[in-house]
Each structure stands twice: as structure tokens, then as C-alpha cells.
Amino acid sequence: MIKYFIVCFELGYEVEDMTELYDSLTGLFGYGGTVEREKDGKVTGFKLQTKYGILRLDYEKKVLELEAPKSGRLSSEDIGELYGILKKALIIRSDKTWYIEARYMFEVV
């Protein structure tokens, strides 16, 4: 098993319109990564590449997750800067700060 870490930003609400969130994020960081859409164009999932790493929404649609770059070079100052950008843009409405969560992935041999 491979252990990796995700930086989590609690939004303070449940995202009802993922298209609106995606549009807000691409307005801040530009386009890059992958997006899944329904036939009518509504966003159902995304992985948005930023200079900080890959942003995605958790399954409960309440936490924005950041997967650090493969280089692993992400400082607490970088995370704080990203948090500030998301908070100022009202994407994060919670007063809780970010936290790190460990995840595990099975390695195929």
C-alpha cells in the first residue's frame, strides 16, 4: 500500500451546483485538468490543475481537496496562500482552517 496525503479545505456548505463552483475555480486558476459533464453541460466532477496541485471536490460535496504536486514541494505558506485566495473568493465560507488527511492506495505489482 502507498500512503499519500491530501490537503482539505472545508467549504462550510454543501455544493449544489458543481458547474458554478468549477466556473469560479477556473476564473481564479484558469483551465487545466479534467472535467466531467452531463449531456446538458452541467459539471458532475472535476480535477483542476493549479500551481499548488490538483483541486477536486469530495464525494459529499463539502470539502475541496488538494492533491500535492508529484514533486511533493508544497509548503504550509503555499497552502495558506491558496486558502486565502479561496476564502477571499467566497469559495470557502467556513471559519475552519485547512488540514491534512492521510489516504492509502493499493500498489499494483
Could you walk me through the main structural features you see in this protein, from its secondary elements to its overall organization?
With 109 residues, the protein is α+β, with helices and mostly antiparallel strands. The protein has one domain: TATA-Binding Protein (2-Layer Sandwich), CATH 3.30.310. Helices cover 23% and strands 36% of the residues. The chain has two helices and six strands; from the N terminus they run E-H-E-E-E-E-H-E. It has helices at residues 18-29, 76-88, and strands at 2-10, 33-37, 43-50, 53-57, 63-67, 99-105. Strands 2-3-4-5-1-6 form a six-stranded antiparallel beta sheet, covered by helices on one side. Strand 3 (43-50) and strand 4 (53-57) form a beta hairpin. The radius of gyration is 14 Å and the shape is globular. It starts with a strand and ends with a strand. The mean pLDDT is 92.
